[in-house]
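Anyone up for a design puzzle?
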């Protein structure tokens, strides 16, 4: 999800995105064993490109899962 945030004491809004990723589905349930939740903000105000978002999400260590 993309959104704008205005950090306290800053004149310009930051461009941000939230992410949520699940892994490790538990058999016979609708649940998962693991979740990563996070956010990223560009204080320069430019909206993160799809490529930048993919780069950041790809940097999450696959061994976690």
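Challenge accepted. My sequence:
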């Amino acid at each position: 999800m993309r959104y704008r945030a205005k950090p306290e004491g800053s004149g310009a809004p930051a461009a941000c995105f939230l992410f949520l990723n699940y892994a490790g589905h538990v058999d016979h349930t609708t649940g998962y064993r693991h979740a990563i939740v996070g956010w990223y903000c560009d204080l320069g105000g430019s909206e993160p490109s799809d490529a930048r978002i993919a780069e950041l999400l790809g940097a999450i260590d696959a061994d976690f899962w």
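A detail worth pointing out: Strands lie at 2-5, 14-25, 32-42.
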